[in-house]
């Protein structure tokens, strides 16, 4: 009895390898856009084609995978979609993203915020204070400009244009008096293009003097912008280069949250 109990404990601790490999095949298929050839799936998993094929046969029987009769490609089946939709119904980008961003703020020793698109524009819903004093007039509930803040630039670049364009036009009009350097459509388009190319919103004192910030987009399963994650700090204390280590760390956290929300690499 004692030996049998030990075997069960070991199995429970290490799991079932067959299931692990089956999930690995499913995950590879999802990362490949939900449809792929046997060769591509095998290459992605690092498993032999014959082994992957056996798992695909079993997954097809259980309707987690389907095979196209014309191309012979495999795609996610109805059962996989059902399970995914049930999981997504329980996903909250703000709740999932908060601990990730809090940890990043602690690791960097900088202030960070999480923002969603609200009725008034980019709205701060989470705020994580740094260990060093940063005097900024931004808190939970603050609405940020779409062109003068790194967070706003993420929404300007990645939100549906039919949604964000009215805010951009309104801000350009108001900028003509106080911020003439960001007051015409050409400048706005350049900002949006740069943000898309860099994959980050980036400002240096355009909203808050002496404060630099970087912001990364987070996407949901429909590849729509869900939230923006932003890190900010004093000039000289925060490496704000979009290609620097802070930018890379911010992108990594944002991509991690995007994957948890169901976003694939396709």
Automatic annotation (TrEMBL):
<dbReference type="GO" id="GO:0045892">
    <property type="term" value="P:negative regulation of DNA-templated transcription"/>
</dbReference>
<protein>
    <submittedName>
        <fullName>Uncharacterized protein</fullName>
    </submittedName>
</protein>
<dbReference type="InterPro" id="IPR005471">
    <property type="entry name" value="Tscrpt_reg_IclR_N"/>
</dbReference>
<dbReference type="GO" id="GO:0003700">
    <property type="term" value="F:DNA-binding transcription factor activity"/>
</dbReference>
<dbReference type="Pfam" id="PF01614">
    <property type="entry name" value="IclR_C"/>
</dbReference>
<keyword id="KW-0805">Transcription regulation</keyword>
<dbReference type="InterPro" id="IPR050707">
    <property type="entry name" value="HTH_MetabolicPath_Reg"/>
</dbReference>
<dbReference type="Pfam" id="PF09339">
    <property type="entry name" value="HTH_IclR"/>
</dbReference>
<dbReference type="GO" id="GO:0003677">
    <property type="term" value="F:DNA binding"/>
</dbReference>
<dbReference type="InterPro" id="IPR036388">
    <property type="entry name" value="WH-like_DNA-bd_sf"/>
</dbReference>
<dbReference type="InterPro" id="IPR029016">
    <property type="entry name" value="GAF-like_dom_sf"/>
</dbReference>
<dbReference type="InterPro" id="IPR014757">
    <property type="entry name" value="Tscrpt_reg_IclR_C"/>
</dbReference>
<keyword id="KW-0804">Transcription</keyword>
<dbReference type="InterPro" id="IPR036390">
    <property type="entry name" value="WH_DNA-bd_sf"/>
</dbReference>
<keyword id="KW-0238">DNA-binding</keyword>
